[in-house]
Amino acid sequence: MENAIGIVFPQTRHRLCTWHVAKDATQPLAGLYTNPKFSKYFNKCFYGCLSESEFEDTWDHMIKTFKLENHSWLQKLYSLRRKWCSAFNLDYFSANIRFIQRVESTNNIFHQISTKTMSLTSFVQHYEQKTAYMRLAELEEDFCCKNGMPHLKAKSGIFKQSASEYTIKIFSFFEKELLGYFVVRLDEVCNVGAKYVFEAIEEGHERVYKIHFDSITFNISCSSKLFETKGLLCRYALKVLDFKNITSIPSQYILKRWTKGTKKGIVVNNDLCESYNKKARSAQSLRLSELMHEANNVVSIASLSYS
């Protein structure tokens, strides 16, 4: 599968399903998996690290604490760490959807419309009904997005802008970050010209996030990597914008795919198109060669008869 994905989807990153990895771990780690302290380290290695160095430190501490230096299954798991540890994939957009979530949502649809004794004809009928229902629900959602506004818990510029730009569902996700930045404490670490570095910490939490900001280009990045993975600015970046008296989200941080106008126009991936065009030209040449061969056969057969 990995080789096929690399050929067909060269710009994607193949990852292992963490649910299946965790499930497979129950047998080789049978004596440890029920240990709360070990589970805390193990789960942090999967989801709780924000950098590769943090993962390495956590993994090494877990291995040394539980004396697992010679554990063959963990050694193999470590060799595949880039395929399952979130810390190695924070620069890749995933909409924060894990493989198991996508599979379960798809399976749930089919479970709703099928039974073990259902005929193929009945299944197709139920499938078409479900498809029609889902399309209608999407149309209704589009109508609500275009003709309504969510209730705003604050009247600031960014609240109004995001509510008018984002779809209702995306705004409900983003609103958590908007409300969250009120409990974020911000400290300016350094400033060189137009470039600033801040450190942010949320009340009641220990983790410190680092934010880089350019006051000329309005480029901003945070160690939380929420924008890189989900396409939405995090509460720490929003806190910096508020601190610098910026009352709207910079245009480069509003992804069209999350907006009410996402269906307008065509989104083009130039690299992918070029790759596709090369393959299309190659396929066209192959088809032309096959058709010429078939045409030659037809002409040869026709030449044998005058009728």
UniProtKB/TrEMBL annotation:
GO cellular component: nucleus
GO molecular function: zinc ion binding
Record's subcellular location: Nucleus
Tree of life domain: Eukaryota
Statement: the UniProt record of this protein carries the keyword Repeat: no
Family annotation (InterPro entries): FHY3/FAR1
Keywords, in A-Z order: Metal-binding, Nucleus, Zinc, Zinc-finger
Alphabetical GO biological process terms: regulation of DNA-templated transcription
Keyword Metal-binding included in the entry's annotation: yes
Predominant place of localization: nucleus
Function of the protein: Putative transcription activator involved in regulating light control of development.
Family statement: Belongs to the FHY3/FAR1 family.
Name the record gives this protein: Protein FAR1-RELATED SEQUENCE
Organism: Prunus dulcis (Almond)
